[in-house]
Amino acid sequence: MTMWEKLRPYAMVAPAITVFSVFFIYPILYMIYLSMYDWNFISPVKTFVGLQNFFDLLEEEKFIQVIVNSTIYTMLTVSFIIILSLLLSLWLNRAGFFYGFVQGAIFSPHIISLVSIAMIWSWLMDPEYGLLNGVIGWFGFGKLAWLSSQKTALVSLVLVAVWKGLGYNTLVFIAGLQSIPKDLYEAAALDRSSAWTTFHRLTLPMLSPTIFFLVIINMLGSFQVFETIAIMTQGGPVNSTNTLVYYIYEYGFRFFKIGYASAAGVILLLIVGVLTLVYFKLLSRRVHYQ
What we know:
Blueprint: H1 3-34, E1 37-38, E2 47-48, H2 52-59, H3 61-92, H4 97-107, H5 114-124, H6 131-138, H7 153-178, H8 182-190, H9 195-223, H10 227-233, H11 244-253, H12 258-283
Antiparallel strand pairs: 1-2
Helix pairs in contact: 1-12, 2-12, 3-7, 3-9, 4-7, 5-10, 7-9, 7-10, 9-12, 11-12
């Protein structure tokens, strides 16, 4: 084997590795470096503070609430998206124009910019002139302060996230359902298996790789939510919708506390990494690929 033949595989993957290193690995390492400094983003002088930024973060009540908000938002969003999209996929996994039309309709929000969606839902949730309050008013309910009340603001953002992600997750579930061999269902029918038993013993185990994948990507996406927070609530009211990424943006690009924001970014990286590892450890053995 010549030298070129030995180096050719490395040469072929070198561009991808270079891009990944420049745009992913280097920013993470630089963020960790900045988290140990006090820097205002303008002055060339950086003051080394060690782990003080992390200690200050963990002692701040606002940051603890931000972590709680992010966790609640992620749990609600992932739970509702997975459950509702699974139910929709069971209903829409049929041939016919109507079912194809509904699939396209619920998928359309996925291709719309999240900024546009956030602006539209801000208008829909307007407490005085919004369509949602107009609809619930027809049924005799009072007006809701969707985005201006601590009780409903975070749930309102979850509603927007579920509406945005439902179509994509439903189509992925439909693809998973269509990959299940038909002869398994025929065998279950011959055994006179009930609908619930077939779903619980056959459909769910065969969908476990799909569920595993969707939970991971939805969890990662929910912890990194930013656009809807920045446009619809700006972290309010009273910090009730502030999440980790918006908190990092706020301290980094509004207050110019780069070291402080970088420390929050490192904590976000650790939280997501630990949750992903725990999820893999706990549920990977229950995933059936055959």
